[in-house]
Design a protein that fits this description.
With 112 residues, chain A is mainly beta. Chain A is built from no helices and twelve strands. In chain B, strands 2, 4, 5, 6, 9, 10 and 11 form a seven-stranded mixed sheet that branches. A four-stranded antiparallel sheet of chain B has the order 1-3-8-7, with no helix packed on it. Classes of the chains: A mainly beta (112), B mainly beta (112).
């Protein structure tokens, strides 16, 4: 069975600081994709960053980067220079080629 | 293409009534997913289509729920004999193999 676990229900960070959101997963598939999605309050779910499991290099998108540890099945998201607009629910997701599996989310609040 | 479109945005119904939601995916996407999301939780998988074929359906989904995707284009999700526990946001998402999910804005269902 595939599972995605986010162990931090809520986090907060001061504006301009750095925060790391944790995610662990479990799958028996050898090829898969990992994603972080952002869902602002009452707004649409949007992609933050993606990682192909066969790539060793960690993905980076501007202020967002991941720490992908395949052996440990860990996929954390680092947000640098946090901005007020980063306040949202963040979901980690696993794509095994059929289903997408989502974690329960981390609610991030950026404090001015 | 304007993205994934869902209709209606909001639906209020009385317990026992039937409701139907529509999703128009991004035109070149062959995979379409339905999720249910309650406040503060991650998306819960309901069902998945590849083209017009319904490949997977959640075991948690009761017989009151049915989905179709005629001709592999738009999809409908019908809930028969609605219950108060069906109140949730119903999300549709589409993708192609190896790409991220693109979400619609969702249909917020309230069962009175």
């Amino acid at each position: 069975a595939q599972t995605v676990t986010q162990s931090q229900p809520e986090m907060s960070v001061q504006e301009a600081e750095t925060v790391t959101l944790s995610c662990t997963y479990d799958t028996s598939e050898s090829n898969y994709y990992l994603f972080w999605y952002k869902q602002p309050p009452s707004r649409q779910m949007i992609l933050v960053i993606r990682q192909e499991a066969y790539k060793q290099q960690n993905a980076t998108e501007n202020r967002f980067s991941v720490n992908f540890q395949k052996a440990a099945k860990s996929f954390s998201l680092k947000i640098s220079d946090s901005q007020l607009g980063d306040t949202a629910m963040y979901f980690c997701a696993l794509d095994t080629g059929n289903q997408f599996y989502f974690g329960t989310g981390t609610s991030l609040t950026v404090i001015p | 293409d304007t993205g994934v479109s869902q209709d209606p945005r909001h639906k209020i119904t009385k317990r026992g009534q039937n409701v139907t939601f529509r999703c128009d995916p991004i035109s070149e996407h062959n995979r379409l997913y339905w999720y249910r999301q309650t406040l503060g939780q991650g998306p819960e998988f309901l069902t998945y289509f590849q083209n017009e074929a319904q490949l997977e359906k959640s075991r948690l989904l009761s017989d009151r729920f049915s989905a179709e995707r005629p001709k592999g284009s738009f999809s409908t999700l019908e809930i028969q004999r609605t219950e108060q526990g069906d109140s949730a946001m119903y999300l549709c998402a589409s993708t192609r193999l190896g790409e991220e999910l693109f979400f619609g804005s969702g249909t917020q269902l309230s069962v009175l």
